[in-house]
Amino acid sequence: MLKGKVAIVTGGSRGIGRAVCVKLAALGADIAFSYAGNEAAAQETKAALEGLGVKVLAMRADVSCGEAVDAFFAKVLEDFGKIDILVNNAGVTKDGLAMRMKEADFDRVVDTNLKGAFLCCKAAARPMMKQRSGRMINLASVVALRGNAGQANYCASKAGVIGLTKSLAKELGGRGITVNAIAPGLIETDMTAVLPEENKAAMLATIPLARAGRPEDVAEAAAFLAGDGAAYITGQVLRVDGGMAM
Ligand code: NAP
């Protein structure tokens, strides 16, 4: 149970982030989530969470912008008084072969996926260090471990998230803060809905469990890492991929 805990989830309006918000709220956590600009999706998530009887804050806040991150975390501390759990979920893709990839597309993906996670971990670290407890959970990806043609920017950003996770686990462990990553495989969300069918079929053929994952599959892993049962686990990368990246 997470009753009495305060969880921040970045990119909580849709997909995996929404499922994580719903799972943590179902376990009793109060939830503050950010999003990039999809107001309708954010309101839908907010209503679902309020229906679970927890306190909710939904705030538009670009994770790649330090000022926006600081304003979001300040508002969370003002409204909720503490931060127990941080799930760095906000992420984007801008796929293309490296030879043709625009510098701006490389920067956008790395700034959102990697710098965004860094900025949020940094903002959460101070209050968590003060209370000498905290859980940070960063969304990586199995492609960070294996590489993927057409995703040099995305794979680099997610490999960076794993390095960030392990470094922070070493820096913050002495203060009772665990830092772990989740590496999902192919999960059915808006992000993967745009992939060509033949690419998805090729990926599915490599998954021993013979299906794509659901956002809820990833949310279960996040809830585990956020819960008491994971108190002695830090610096790890938990694959939620149906066996894809063994
Ligand atoms: P998604 O359906 O595309 O949703 C992305 C979420 O991130 C949305 O809530 C979006 O907000 C938010 N977001 C995007 N840029 C942001 C920014 N700059 N600041 C704040 N929020 C931002 O993605 P998903 O598939 O659920 O993926 C969630 C995470 O899992 C990502 O980190 C992704 O890389 C990772 N992942 C996904 C898969 C997969 O197969 N789906 C596999 C491995 C890893 P708006 O709604 O406002 O746009």
Walkthrough of the structure:
The structure is a single chain. The chain has about 250 residues and is of the alpha/beta class. The chain has helices at about 15-25, 40-50, 65-80, 105-130, 145, 150-170, 190-195, 195-205, 215-225; strands at about 5-10, 30-35, 55-60, 85-90, 135-140, 175-185, 235-240. Strands 3-2-1-4-5-6-7 form a seven-stranded parallel sheet, with helices on both faces. Helix 4 (about 105-130) links the parallel strand 4 (about 85-90) and strand 5 (about 135-140). Helix 1 packs across helix 9 (about 215-225), helix 3 (about 65-80) runs parallel beside helix 4 and helix 4 (about 105-130) packs parallel to helix 6 (about 150-170). The longest helix has 29 residues, at about 105-130.
Shape: globular
Strand percentage lies at: 15-25%
Number of strands: 7
Straight-line distance between termini: 31 Å
Low-confidence stretches: none
Task: Report the sheet with the most strands, covering strand number, pairing sense and barrel closure.
Answer: 7 strands, parallel
Structural features:
246 residues, alpha/beta, globular, 15% strand, 9 helices, binds NADP nicotinamide-adenine-dinucleotide phosphate
Could you provide a short overview of the structure?
By secondary structure, this protein is α/β, with parallel strands linked by helices.
Strands, helices and their partners?
Blueprint lengths: L5 E4 L5 H12 L3 E6 L3 H12 L5 E5 L5 H15 L4 E4 L14 H29 L2 E6 L3 H4 L5 H21 L4 E8 L5 H4 L3 H8 L10 H12 L10 E4 L6
Helix pairs in contact: 1-9, 3-4, 4-6
